[in-house]
Design brief:
- This protein is 33% helix and 26% strand.
- With 331 residues, the chain is an alpha+beta fold.
- Strands 8-10-7-11-9-12-13 form a 7-stranded mixed sheet. It has a 4-stranded mixed sheet with strand order 3-6-4-5.
- Helix 2 runs parallel beside helix 3, helix 2 packs parallel to helix 6 and helix 4 crosses helix 5.
- It is globular, with a radius of gyration of 20 Å.
- The chain binds adenosine-5'-diphosphate and magnesium ion (MG).
- The site of adenosine-5'-diphosphate has 13 residues, from helix 1, strand 4 and strand 5.
């Protein structure tokens, strides 16, 4: 990277979409006017080369897209509307300016889709690998945040979309030559490289004025259900036969499918719980918006295990495996 100041000029958006922004890139800090009828919702996620992404499986454009998508997904999982994002990057000299500009093109592509503005960031050099930390700011009507602690016994457990696709896509990227990809394999790869956060579904859920617990599926269904169960002090029972699986994923053995659904992650679909009565209303609204939603289980009084799977008339513990950055194989 020749010069950070000329780089910042190149990535600075020509125009901002949100009218509440007073000053974006170009001063010491950004200023936007918060709406007094809204709660502000904010999150940050950091992605490190060779831990969260690799140039072997993702283009620079994909890396930028995904870094912003995963943060938008956290806002969606609170029922919020994303408005702004900031990007801090630590750049090693193995990355050329042109490649970094491609990262920012990927960010801008998903930002355009959700009408959000880049309003700031930070640029430093590093002797390590590329690090990208994205902060997203959003808002939601006062008091309407959808918390993972809101589940109650008797609730229905539901999820949006289909599950397991992203992990299957990564598996293909890691183990197959590009010129051998069949069309269903290409479909699965897109789930991994360009995840689509469920903002509209989250907004529908927060607009209905009812109790909903909600998480986005970043670490696999098992881990997310565990988080809801623990935060809400309940147990969750997943009906294995009800899990929504894409036609593309059905090309694999049932064991592979389930392994990816439970432990795969990087899905960015939503999983949540709500009362039986309210679920009917949710189903209706999601149908109108053309969003797939599936009932996948029920919430029970807290029992021996936080999460159980029901299959063939039996109940088994669903362990909380998944990726943990500091303890491999544990979560
Ligand atoms: P300061 O010294 O005041 O921190 P900087 O030179 O770091 O200023 O940044 C100048 C402007 O460019 C600020 O508005 C900052 O938010 C923005 N900026 C810097 N780096 C990035 C980046 N990587 N992505 C987006 N905006 C950036
Ligand atoms: Mg700075």
């Amino acid at each position: 990277m020749p010069d950070e100041f000329s780089f910042i000029n190149k990535i600075k958006p020509a125009k901002l979409k949100q009218s509440s922004c007073i000053i974006g890139i170009g001063d010491d800090a950004a200023v936007y006017r918060a709406n007094s009828n809204k709660d502000q919702v904010v999150c940050v996620d950091t992605m490190c080369e060779e831990v969260h992404f690799s140039r072997k499986t993702m283009t620079p454009f994909d890396i930028g897209w995904k870094a912003v998508a995963v943060n938008i997904s956290d806002i969606a999982a609170m029922g919020g509307k994303p408005l702004y994002y900031l990007v801090a990057i630590a750049v090693p000299n193995s990355w050329k300016e042109e490649e970094l500009l491609n990262v920012y093109e990927g960010m801008a592509a998903i930002a355009d889709k959700y009408n959000i503005d880049l309003i700031g960031g930070d640029t430093v050099s590093t002797k390590g690998s590329l690090v990208i930390a994205v902060t997203v700011i959003g808002e939601l009507p006062t008091g309407k945040a959808l918390l993972r602690s809101s589940a109650m016994p008797g609730d229905i457990v539901f999820t949006t979309g289909t599950l397991g696709n992203s992990a299957a896509g990564l598996e293909i990227l890691l183990h197959q030559e590009e010129n051998t990809y069949k069309s269903f394999e290409k479909e699965l790869i897109v789930f991994h490289q360009r995840p689509v956060p469920q903002v509209e579904a989250g907004l529908i859920l927060s607009s209905l004025n009812e109790r909903v617990s909600l998480n986005d599926i970043s670490d696999g269904l098992a881990s997310e259900c565990n988080e809801i169960a623990e935060a809400s002090n309940v147990s969750i029972e997943i009906d294995e036969h009800a899990l929504p699986i894409s036609n593309a994923l059905k090309n694999y053995s049932l064991d592979d499918q389930l392994n990816w659904v439970y432990y795969g992650g990087e899905e960015y679909q939503l999983v949540g719980t709500t009362s039986k009565q309210h679920y009917l209303q949710i189903e209706e609204k999601m149908k109108q918006a053309n969003i797939q939603v599936t009932k996948i289980g029920t919430v029970k009084e807290k029992g021996e295990f936080p999460v159980m799977i029901r299959k063939d008339g039996r109940s088994l513990e669903l362990k909380k495996l998944g990726y943990n950055h500091f303890r491999e194989g544990e979560k």
